[in-house]
Amino acid sequence: MSRKLKFSLGVAFLATSTFAMSDVSPVHAYPASGANFPSCGTDAAAEYCIQQFAFTPTGGVLREVNPSNFALGNLDSAGNKEVNVVAKLSAGYAGTSSTPEQDGVLASLSLNFYDPLSTTLSSTTNTGLRDGLYTVVIRTGDFDPSSMMLLGAYDSYSVVKGADGFFTITLTARPIPWAAVVQMNGNDSVFQACKASQWTTNCEANMANQRYILATFNMMDTAVMREAARGSWISTSASTIQVAASTSSLQYNFTVEGPHYVPADFGVAGLAQENGKSLNPAFFKMYVPFAMMAASMSQAGGAVSAADVATLMANPSSVLTGTIFEKTGTAAAVEVPQVLTFASASGGVVVDFNLKHFSAPNPSLKIKAPAAKKTLAISKTSSFTTLITLAKMTKAKTSKVSAVVAASSKNICQVVKNSVKGLKAGSCKVTVTVTTAKGKKTSQTITLKVS
Question: How far apart are CA 420 and CA 388, in angstroms?
């Protein structure tokens, strides 16, 4: 089964406000559609609110900041312009029953960071945020932040599920130089030009910040995957990301888009040059929990635990591989292997795709896990549905499934109603047949290890 899940990164453009408001009216129910999260204040039972916001300037000390509903109008107690964060759920969030919309966008929570001291350097570039570490603690109620997409440099991230079933996010991140192609005042001509050129030589950023952070948290549409993926994250400098997950082929395909060139005043020294312009410094890192990989393998067939994956990850390159698509001149894009770098992390692994720039079409990144174990315990059964998955076959609702154990395996396993049962240790060879309503038959033979 393949599922395309489009994760939207909600960039907000707001005019500067001239005053600030300390919002300490926490909510205990779903916020109104489009409403910003208030501060939690002293209400320990409040949900859908910001519990803490702190900023540590580079070379300085941490200070607590009271966030404001006015994105660019935050002031401290002395009236000085202060950094700010605004949190907002996607429109129409309806709790854990929320499902992907028609375009595949999952329920999401966005964190936009602002700095009223940001200055405009040109028609394209702003200085953006003050440099340093930004920490946010936010209570999200029953919104389960299964995965995070971060435009910024990851420092730390955690998701805690309380005894009441509600969630708390703690994120610390550092700003990055970020260039993008966006729709301006209803005009998307620059974006369309980049699409037409497949994001290569004619694609230049029309918006850039020398220091920028945006975090988007997405909720998976099934309880199993929400539990397994919780805590996963991607850190990148891309403008947009789309994810397509296939449980049958055990792949996570990422399409990331970003401008090929950055403005001359981007503020990053030593960038690679092409045609007298600076290339966009692309990067793409992700944290994959072992539980997430185990869930994907198990859905593909056979039971695989997070502990099993942790053992396999002693040799990560045997479990995870990567590819990107590259294009040269007018030739068609080709898929090529990409060398990955792995870093150990608690309960999972951090994968760095070592991107150099957003080539065209933008890299479609893949993680491939090995096929699930085709094992069967003695005295246990494996359903025909599982056998179909292991055989990588498909079945319509009107089709029928049958299975025949090979003569050489009859003392190892046997068919019992709509499943195969293990009798004793050994190899069980089974031929699975799918018969359509019109009588067309398709068969595959698989071998199960009975132990």
Answer: 12
Per the listing, tokens 């403005």 go with 263
Q: For residue 305, give both structure tokens.
A: 């635990």
Rounded to 5 degrees, φ, ψ at 45 are -95, -5
Among 31, 67, 33, which Cα is nearest to 50's?
67
The secondary structure of residue 16, as a DSSP letter, is: P
Instruction: List Cβ neighbours of 32 (8 Å cut-off, separation of 6 or more).
Output: none
Summarised one tens digit per residue, pLDDT across range 149-166 is: 999 999 999 999 999 999
Beta strands in 130-199 (DSSP E): 132-141, 147-151, 153-161, 167-174, 176-180
Residue 18 has pLDDT above 60, yes or no: no
Measured distance CA(113)–CA(111) in Å, rounded: 7
DSSP assigned state of 238 = -
In the prediction, which pLDDT does 359 show? 63
Beta-bridge partner residues of 341: 352
195: left (phi over 0), alpha (psi -120 to 50) or beta: alpha
Encoded tokens for 189: 């001509």
pLDDT tens per residue across span 240-284: 777 776 655 567 777 788 888 999 899 888 898 888 899 898 899
Q: Which CATH class is domain 375-450?
A: mainly beta
Q: Within 10 A of 148 (CB to CB), how many other CB atoms are there?
A: 25
Which residue in the block uniquely carries the two structure tokens 């997409």? 149
Are 37 and 138 in contact by the 8 Å Cβ rule? The answer is yes
Give the contacts of 11 (CB within 8 A, at least 6 positions apart).
112, 180, 182, 214
The beta-strand segments (E) located in 2-80 are 2-7, 49-57, 63-64
Across 40-44, 250-254, 436-440, least confident range: 250-254
- pTM: predicted TM-score of the whole model, two decimal places: 0.77
Q: Are 200 and 277 in contact (CB under 8 A)?
A: no
**Alpha carbons 437 and 344: distance in angstroms, whole number:** 50
Are β-strands 240-246 and 2-7 bridged in parallel, bridged antiparallel, or unpaired?
A: antiparallel
- Is residue 192 within a helix (H) or strand (E), and if so which, with residue range? helix 189-196
Exposed (0-12), middle (13-18) or buried (19+): which is 435, by Cβ within 10 Å?
middle
Q: Where are the domains of the chain?
A: 2-368, 375-450
The Cα 82–Cα 215 span in angstroms is 19
